[in-house]
Amino acid sequence: MATLQLNNIVKDFGGTQVIKGVDLEVKDREFVVFVGPSGCGKSTLMRMIAGLESATSGDILIDGERINDVGPADRGLAMVFQSYALYPHMSVEDNMGFSMRLAKVPTAERREKVLAAARILQLEELLDRKPRALSGGQRQRVAIGRAIVRNPSIFLFDEPLSNLDAALRVQMRIELARLHEELDATMIYVTHDQIEAMTMADKIVVLQGGVVEQIGSPMALYHHPANLFVAGFIGSPKMNFLDVEIRRADAEGVDVVLPGGDCRVPVEGDGVSIGDKLTLGIRPEHLKLDDQGALTGKILVIERLGGTTSLYLEKGDSQWILVADGDVTSRVHDQIRFSFDPACAHLLKGNGDALPHRHRHPLADIDRKENGGLSV
Amino acid sequence: MNTSKRWLPHTFKIALLTLLLLWTLIPIIWMVLSSFKSNDIITAGTPRVFFTPILEHYTSLFSSGNSLWPYLLNSLFIAGVSTLIAVVLGCMAGFGLSRIRIKGKQHLAFWIISTRMAPIAAVIVPLYLLFRYLYLLDTHAGLIVAYLSFNLPFAIWLMTAFFDDLPPDLEEAAMIDGATKLQAFRYVVLPLMTPGLVTTAILCFIFAWNDYAFAQTFSGPNTQTIPIAAAQLLTQTGIDWGKLLAIGTIVVCPMAIAGLLVKRWLVKGLTLGAVK
Ligand SMILES: Nc1ncnc2c1ncn2[C@@H]1O[C@H](COP(=O)(O)OP(=O)(O)O)[C@@H](O)[C@H]1O
Ligand SMILES: [Mg+2]
């Protein structure tokens, strides 16, 4: 049982504000992912939770208790570092048992617990080795094992998979999700990779420049991005954008001008007026080839992935991506027409904020457990 | 083709290294060998390669009225204590300097090492005056302080560099594992610092062990070190070459071995298999 709460957390490094007032609530047993571009403050935020960095102002609460002034040793957390930070002079067993050695746990009990964790992570064979005799993936497991052994109230992971190759990364992702299920613990996970965020999180926190851009479930962020940054950051390939003008706005939706005729997007049109400039966003997978379509573009590159095909299009002076079936017959340099379902489109104001959709997507507010276990 | 192209520079390199090796080793070998020769052979017009080794110079050094023992013990004690203090304080200061986050840190670090850059001659007079006021002349403490004035900044600087190479992740991981700052230092940082500590210790020891200028100025009858003993053999009535070379051997050999050790540690460096 462990909840975490951040109230208006600010971090100042010698005059530069790196975290600019973050509020967050993490529920018990939730898997929360901090995602954002490199340098946005994810690690700093996590390190403040761990107690390795002090917060300049604001409150950090674990289970409702303010722990700003509690040292990292006494917060009852475990952290897996991007570098793994295994103790090079200790064997795998000693690495995993170090916290218990400090806590003066008897040797027999220590060994038992290390073995139990080693079994979960298939490390039994490696217990006598030194870290330098391990592969990257094995070091990763030892680092996770060292965290599990502590039986922490909250697990912290700082980009734990970024030093692994692609195949191993996918495997560890699945393993971490399984581990979350099995340990039933609260986990906070930092990554710059939105795919890791989408696949593992119950709740994603999108950070940029030390500010929370949006908090929500993966499907909420995907279907209801709150602003231009989240719209462009979440989803792969990236969302396409087009400058449009409002023709009409009312309670039913907003009409925007497109080359092939107006388009009615079902969003709330409060606070906008006719003639306003907006940005229309539409995901590559929501575009479909359509001879009657309102939009046109010239194919620059075709990427065939088998199941799907990505068409990179030249559209005016911007580049668009369209994800089509695996067996489309289009060729490079073809001029194609395409359309989209206006319900899937997003409209974003000049200041970047999205106009809210009138209807919530049915999956947006389902959490992973209701979703039937692993969403990986 | 490729090998023949590299063949010439390679032989050249070997030749150069051989020359350098001879240049360095010949005086030392000559000194060590000669310390086992009788004075007649040493001073003979033609150098002798084959001779019957004798231990006379060594035995007379340690048995005659003016035995080398006190000098040797003074040297060991003074160099040893000043090294110990330099390494302990250097280790703590280096750790602090490496981990602290303050503005102008590199200036502070540079200021510390800059005190090591002053020539010995420039500090001898001020130190002499200071020591006279503090009654530190002809005391072990005085020489220890004198050597510390050079070894401490050096040790701090060297240890800072070693700590900079050690990722703070490791201490942080230890602290999250439940260690206090001191425990993290004791169980994680210190064991990984052995190469750095040994290297620093040997280099500090060599400085104190080899010093002549400070010892000549600050020591008295009670505190003379081996280099002083060697100098005392250069008398107006003549030079006792045999003894001089024997002292030289006693001074150089331990340091040569220590030097080889430093190289081994330095080359070994910090093996941080656990990070990346
Ligand atoms: N110890 C520090 N001193 C000064 N600036 C720092 C320090 N640590 C991080 N920063 C700055 O804070 C910002 C956020 O860093 P970080 O939290 O590591 O980003 P992320 O993990 O999202 O890549 C960066 O601009 C970085 O330069
Ligand atoms: Mg980071």
Helix share bin of chain A: 10-25%
Strand content of chain B: under 5%
Query: How many separate domains make up the residues of chain A?
Result: 2
Which cofactor or ligand species appear? adenosine-5'-diphosphate, magnesium ion
Average predicted local confidence, pLDDT of chain A: 92
Named CATH topology of the largest domain in chain B: MetI-like fold
The CATH superfamily title of the largest domain in chain A = P-loop containing nucleotide triphosphate hydrolases
Q: Give the strand tally of chain A.
A: 20
Can you describe this structure?
The complex is a heterodimer of chains A (376) and B (276). Chain A is built from 8 helices and 20 strands. Chain A has 2 domains: 4-228, P-loop containing nucleotide triphosphate hydrolases (Rossmann fold, 3-Layer(aba) Sandwich), CATH 3.40.50; 237-348, OB fold (Dihydrolipoamide Acetyltransferase, E2P), CATH 2.40.50. Helix content of chain A is 23%, strand content 33%. Chain A is an alpha+beta fold and 376 residues long. In chain A, the strands form 4 sheets. Chain A has a 6-stranded mixed beta sheet, sandwiched between helices. A 5-stranded antiparallel beta sheet of chain A has the order 13-12-11-14-20. Chain B folds into 2 domains: 2-57; 63-272, Orthogonal Bundle (MetI-like fold), CATH 1.10.3720. Chain B is built from 13 helices and 2 strands. In chain B, helix 1 (2-34) packs antiparallel against helix 13. The longest helix of chain B has 33 residues, at 2-34. The two termini of chain B are 39 Å apart. At the A-B interface, strand 6 and helix 2 of A face helix 8 and helix 9 of B. Magnesium ion is lined by residues 42-43, 159 of chain A. Chain A: Residues 4-234 form the ABC transporter domain. Chain A: Keywords: ATP-binding, Cell inner membrane, Cell membrane, Membrane, Nucleotide-binding, Sugar transport, Transport. Chain A: This is ABC transporter.
